[in-house]
Amino acid sequence: MIKIAIVGGTGYTGVELLRILALHPEVIIHTVTSRADVGKRVDDMYPNLRGFVDAEFTEPSVESLAECDIVFFATPNGTAMRMAQALLERGLKIIDLAADFRLTDPAVWEHWYGEPHVCPDLLHEAVYGLPEVNRERIRNARLLANPGCYPTAVQLGLLPLVEQRLVHLDTLIADAKSGVSGAGRKAEIPMLMSETGESFKAYGVKGHRHLPEIRQGLEQACGEPIGLTFVPHLVPMIRGIHATLYAQLVTSAALDLQNLYETRYRDEPFVDVLPAGSHPDTRNVRGSNRCQIAVHRPQGGDTVVILSVIDNLVKGAAGQAVQNMNLLFGLEETTGLRAIGVYP
Amino acid sequence: MIKIAIVGGTGYTGVELLRILALHPEVIIHTVTSRADVGKRVDDMYPNLRGFVDAEFTEPSVESLAECDIVFFATPNGTAMRMAQALLERGLKIIDLAADFRLTDPAVWEHWYGEPHVCPDLLHEAVYGLPEVNRERIRNARLLANPGCYPTAVQLGLLPLVEQRLVHLDTLIADAKSGVSGAGRKAEIPMLMSETGESFKAYGVKGHRHLPEIRQGLEQACGEPIGLTFVPHLVPMIRGIHATLYAQLVTSAALDLQNLYETRYRDEPFVDVLPAGSHPDTRNVRGSNRCQIAVHRPQGGDTVVILSVIDNLVKGAAGQAVQNMNLLFGLEETTGLRAIGVYP
Amino acid sequence: MIKIAIVGGTGYTGVELLRILALHPEVIIHTVTSRADVGKRVDDMYPNLRGFVDAEFTEPSVESLAECDIVFFATPNGTAMRMAQALLERGLKIIDLAADFRLTDPAVWEHWYGEPHVCPDLLHEAVYGLPEVNRERIRNARLLANPGCYPTAVQLGLLPLVEQRLVHLDTLIADAKSGVSGAGRKAEIPMLMSETGESFKAYGVKGHRHLPEIRQGLEQACGEPIGLTFVPHLVPMIRGIHATLYAQLVTSAALDLQNLYETRYRDEPFVDVLPAGSHPDTRNVRGSNRCQIAVHRPQGGDTVVILSVIDNLVKGAAGQAVQNMNLLFGLEETTGLRAIGVYP
Amino acid sequence: MIKIAIVGGTGYTGVELLRILALHPEVIIHTVTSRADVGKRVDDMYPNLRGFVDAEFTEPSVESLAECDIVFFATPNGTAMRMAQALLERGLKIIDLAADFRLTDPAVWEHWYGEPHVCPDLLHEAVYGLPEVNRERIRNARLLANPGCYPTAVQLGLLPLVEQRLVHLDTLIADAKSGVSGAGRKAEIPMLMSETGESFKAYGVKGHRHLPEIRQGLEQACGEPIGLTFVPHLVPMIRGIHATLYAQLVTSAALDLQNLYETRYRDEPFVDVLPAGSHPDTRNVRGSNRCQIAVHRPQGGDTVVILSVIDNLVKGAAGQAVQNMNLLFGLEETTGLRAIGVYP
After folding, report:
1. Interval A25-69: pLDDT, tens
2. What stretches in chain C show pLDDT beneath 70?
3. Which of C73, C140, D312, D339 makes an SS bond possible with C80, Cβ 3.0 to 4.6 Å?
4. Alpha carbon of D183: minimum distance to chain A alpha carbons (Å)
C-alpha cells in the first residue's frame, strides 16, 4: 500500500483527491495537512467523507510528510516549490497540483507568477504530468507538475492538429468556459452565488496564467512557436470545462479529421473521441476522469472547430494526479478512476 | 454473476441504475428495454456510459426478460403490475422502482393512481423495500416495491420518533423539497429550465401520491393511525431531497433524541446521523446511497425538527434498488454502492 | 424632489435601492456612502447603473447626510442606531433596512444581537414599516424600522389567521426558504456558488434573529403569546423567498379561508391573493414589490397551509423601504414601484 | 394611444412583450392571441402579469387584428409570412420577432428554413430592425424584421471593425453563449432543467440559422463577402447572451479601438461601450434593453477580442421590438424601455 500525504487538504482539489483516494484500493491516506485547521477532523469539514476518511488535519512539516511515499500538493501557487527539494532528498515522490513546476523557463514563470522561482533547477527535472503526451517520462519521474485544468482540455483538443502541423500555428484560438469550482475555495465576493449565478462573463482576456502553459505544451508538440489567443469564461455551474477551439487548416483538401483524432487517442483510457457530429456536454464527464472530444469542420470550410470537455476537478486536477500516481508506482493506470459521469 | 434486466432504461432512474450496475462486480447487464428506442445503442443516448455499457435498447417481452435473474422496472406507474405475474412464474425476481406495489390496500392504490390495480393479490406478497425496516423480509422476497424518493427521506427521518411514540401522531408535518430530476425525463413545459431555474415553488399541496405511502409506512411502524401533512416543493437543482420534519413531543421532559437516532441507525450502512446541531446539505449525498439526518429541538421546546437528506436518484431510487438486490441475492449489502458524495 | 441618502450603498439592499430610486420620479439620489470605496464611481462597481446613477461613494457623516431629506441605512446591524439620534435632531427622516429598530424590547434586542442597544428610547418611537399593518403610523413617523425579508413573507402569510385567532397560536410553523442574496454581499466561503449551488440546506434551526421579530409582529396582531417554530433554508437561486406556513385550526367547521385572505388584502397594492388551489412561484415576483399568497387546507383537515412568496430584495427590503418612503412623504404608495415580475 | 396586438402571446418573447408593453405609457394592449388557449385569461397563465394585463387569449384572425395599429408576431417561423400581406393591406404595421423577413434572398431563406418563402416580394420591402444600423429606414417602414438574439449581440460587437474594414473579413469567429430561454417555451427533453442545468455544451456547430442573418448584416455593412464561423453554446442560466468575437487586424499598427467603439455608439441609447479592460456580465443587462460591449487586444497582438452582452429576451427580442415600435410611431426611442439591469 502506498502511503500518501495531501498538503492543503481543504481546497476543492484537496477534497476531490480525498474523494478519489479514499476508495483507491492501493493507497492509505496517511496525512492531510491544513495549517488553519490543525486538529479538526477532515470529515467534520467535509461530511461527504464521513465513514471514508478517518483523519485529522495536521501541520505540514517535512518530518511528518517524510513518513509517506508520495506528497500531493493541493496548495496555492508558491508552496510546493518551497518544500520540494527537502522531500525529494528524503526519497519521496511529489505531485504538485499547483503551477510551481509547470513552466520550464524560470523567467516565464516569474513573469506570470510575480516572484522569482525558488528552485529553478527542479524546473528541468519536473515532468509535465499529461499522460497522453509524457506517459513514459511520468513513470520514471520523482517530481510531477500536474497540468492546469484549462491546459488539459485545450491541449488534448489541439494536440492532434498541432502535432501534425495541419493548421496555422500562429492564429489558434481557445475559447474556454469553466465552472466556478475552478476558482477554488476562497472567500471572495466575485465567486459568491449572487455574483456568478445566472450570469456569464469572460475574464482575464488581457492574459491568463494558463496561456504560457498551453503555449509551452503545444510548442513542444510541434517544435515551432505557437500564437494562441486564450479567453477563459466563467459558467454558472460548479464543475466542468468546455473548450471551443478554432484553427485554420493549412490546406483546403479533404482530410479525415475524425480518423486523425480517433487514431491519436485510440489507446488512451481517459480520452474519448465522440462520433462525428457530436456536441459533448460537460455533465457527461462530471465526476469522471474522462475527456470527451468532438471534431467539426463547419460547412467544409478551412476552420476546424474542436469541442473538448473535462471535469475541471478530476481530469483537470485530482483525477489526473491520481492517474499520474498510478503511473509513478507501476499500477494499472485506471486504478481508482473507473467512475462514470454523474448524469443527470 | 447475476443477469439483470432494466425495463424502461431511458428515464433518469433507468440511467442511474445503469451507472451503478455497470460498475457492480457481481452483475451482468443483460437486457435494457425501451420501446421507443429499439436498436439504438444505450451509450448513444447516454454518452457518460460509453465504454461501460455495451448494449442496445430492446423491446420488452416476457420471453427475453426470462433469460435474466432479476428485472428492474424503471417505468411509469402501471407497467410493472402488468408483467409481474408472468415473470414471477418463470422464477425471476422483480424490483419495481415505480409505485405499483407500494400500497398494500388495492382501494387506496386505485384512489391515488386512478385505475384499478391489475394484480391485487400480489400487493400482499410484495415487500416494501426499505431495508432499514424490512431487511429480513427483503432477503426472502420475490417481488420488491422500491420506496418512493420522498417516502424514503421522510420515513427514515420520522421512524425513530414514531416507533417509540414519542410524538403526537396526528399532527406530523413533512415539508419536503426535491431537485427537478424527481419529475423524470419527460417533455413537459413546467420542467424546462426556464420555468424551474432560479425559482422555488410548492406543488401538490392538495394531495400527493407519496402521502399514502408515507402514512402506511409510519402506521406500520407504530400500529396506530397517522395524521400527516405533506407538502412537496421543487428546488432549482437537479438532484437531492431535503425533508424538514416537524413533530410535537408528547412530553416536555428531557429526552436524548440524538442518542435515540444514533442507536436506531447504528448498524445501518446507509443512514448517517450527523452530530448534534448539524444542518445536512443535499450536496454531501449527491451520487451516493446515503441518508444524512440531523435532530433538532429548537429552544428546547416541544417541537422536534428533523432534517433528512438523500439523493433522490440513489437512496431515493436506483441505489436503494441495488441495495435491495444485494439483499435478495445474499451479497454484501454495500456491494457496488460505496460511492462518496460528489462535493462540490 | 426628495433628496435621499443611502448609507452603505455597496450591499445588495443598497444597490437594489439605487436600482429602484434611480427611476423614481420624485427623488434625487444625493448621497451614497461607502467607507471602503470613497471616491469610486457607483457605476464602476455596478455597471447595471451606468447612465442612471451619476454619483461617487462618499464618507458617511452626519454633516453631509444633513443636506438630505431622508436617509436609508442599508448597513450591517448596529450602524443606524449609532447615527439615528443626530440625524433626527437635524430634521431628517430615517428608514433603517437593518434590524436596529425592529424589536421594541431592548432586552430582547440585546439577547439576539449580542450587544446592548445604543438608543433604547428610540425603539419605542420607531415604527415597524409593514404598511399592511401600520400604514397610518408610518405616514407620521420620523424613524422607520424596515421589516426583515423572512418576517415580511411570514407575517403577511399568517396575519389573517392570527388576527382572527382562527388557529392555535402556540404551534405555528414557518418553513421558509430564501435565495442566497439574503445573506448579503460578504466574502464568506459558505456563500460561494460552489458551496450553495446545486444544493439545499436548512440553517439556524437553533434560533434565527428573525424569529423574535416575527413573533413580536404576530403577538401585536392578536394580543396573545405566540409559539412559533421558524426554520430558514437556503435555496440555490439568487432572489426570492417562499414561506410555507402551517397552522392548526381551532375549529373543524367549514371556513371560507380564501375569502378571509381576499378580504384582508383587498385594498393592498402589493399583496396579491392568488386563486384557490394556486402554488405561487418566486419567479413571478422577481424584481417586483409584490407578495403573492395562496391558501390551502389539504384534504379538508385541520391543518392550514399558506404559501407566501416575495422577492427578498424588493418587498423584503428595498422595495418595501421605498413603499414606506412614499407613505412618509405623502406620495402615491406605488410610485416608482410598478415593476412587473421578471419571468422567465 | 397605439392599439397593439400580439400574435402568439404564450411564448417567452410574447410574455416579455407583455411585460414591457403593459407599462408602456403610449400603448393599449388590445389583442393577445393563442390558438391553444382561447378564452383563458393571460394572467392565469402568467401570474406575474396579474393586475397589469386584463385580457384573454383570442383566436388570431385578420379581422380582429385589423382593429389594431400594429401587430407583433411572437410566433414560430413561418407564421407571420402567411398573414403579413393581408394585414399590410389593411394599413397595419407589422413587427415580426421570428425569422420570416430577416433574410433578403428567398433562396437563402428556403435553404435555412426548409420551405419556400410565401411572400418573397415582401422580403425586399421588409426593413431589418436593428436601429443602430437602419434607424431612418425603420421610421418609415411598414414591415419590420426584428433581428435574432445572437445576430443582435454579434453584429453590434463586430460592426465598428467591419464597417471600417480594420479586420480580415474572411476569418471572423463568433463564439456565442446563450441562456436557455432562447430556445423558447416548448416541451422538449433537451431543455429540461435536468438536461441543461449544471452543464455546458455547444450546439449547431454544423450550421445555425443565425449564421446567414449575421453574415448578411455584416456584408451590408462593408459591401464585401464575409467568412464567419459561428458556434452557439447553451449556458445553464435563463436569460442572457454573451458573444466572444475574434477578428484578425489587417494592420499591426497601433489603433485606438476603444475610441472607435465609443465614437460609433456615442449617440446610441442602448449600446454601452464599457471602459477599456472591462469584462461585461450578462447579469448587468438582465431585464434591460442594453447591449454592453468591451474591446480587447490581448498582449497587443493582431487578434481583437470583442465581448458583447445582451438580454436575449429584451435587446435580443421584445425590447428591441418595442424600440422599433417607438421609432415606427415617432415616439421617443427609449419610451417604456428605461429599465435597469436586475442585479444581483
Report:
1. 999 999 999 999 999 999 999 999 999 999 999 999 999 999 999
2. none
3. C73
4. 16
| Interface size, chain B vs chain C, as Cβ–Cβ contacts under 8 Å | 141
Residues C118 and C59 in one domain: yes
Domain count, chain B: 2
C228 in the same domain as C84: no
Task: Tell me whether B235 touches chain C (CB under 8 Å).
Answer: yes
Backbone angles phi, psi at A174, to 5 degrees: -120, 105
User: Does a structural domain hold residue C318?
Assistant: no
Q: What stretches of chain B adopt beta strand conformation (E)?
A: 2-7, 27-33, 57-58, 70-73, 93-96, 127-128, 143-145, 172-178, 201-202, 228-234, 241-248, 271-273, 291-296, 303-310
Q: Which domain holds residue D107?
A: 2-125
Same domain, C158 and C298: yes
In a domain, D134, yes or no: no
Q: Is A149 a catalytic residue?
A: yes
Write the pLDDT tens digit of every residue in D186-202.
999 999 999 999 999 99
Contact A202, D307 (CB under 8 A): yes
| Nearest CA distance, D284 vs chain B (angstrom) | 16
Per-residue pLDDT band for B335 (boundaries 50, 70, 90) equals very high
pTM above 0.90, yes or no: yes
List pLDDT tens digits, range B44-80: 999 999 999 999 999 999 999 999 999 999 999 999 9
ipTM: 0.97
Angle at C246 between CA C243 and CA C247, to 5 degrees: 140
pLDDT score recorded for residue A253: 84
User: For residue B198, which residues of chain D lie inside 8 Å, CB to CB?
Assistant: 237-238
Q: How many CB pairs under 8 A join A and C?
A: 65
CATH code where residue C167 lies: 3.30.360.10
How many Cα neighbours within 13 Å face the side chain of B299? Answer: 14
State the first-to-last Cα distance of chain B, in angstroms, to the nearest integer. 35
Which chain B positions have a beta carbon within 8 Å of D181's beta carbon?
A: 194
- The three cell numbers locating residue A56: 485529522
Q: Residue B73 is part of a domain; what is its CATH number?
A: 3.40.50.720
- Whole-number Å distance between alpha carbons of D136 and D309: 25
**Domain match, C118 and C168 both:** no
Which DSSP letter does residue C192 get?
Answer: B
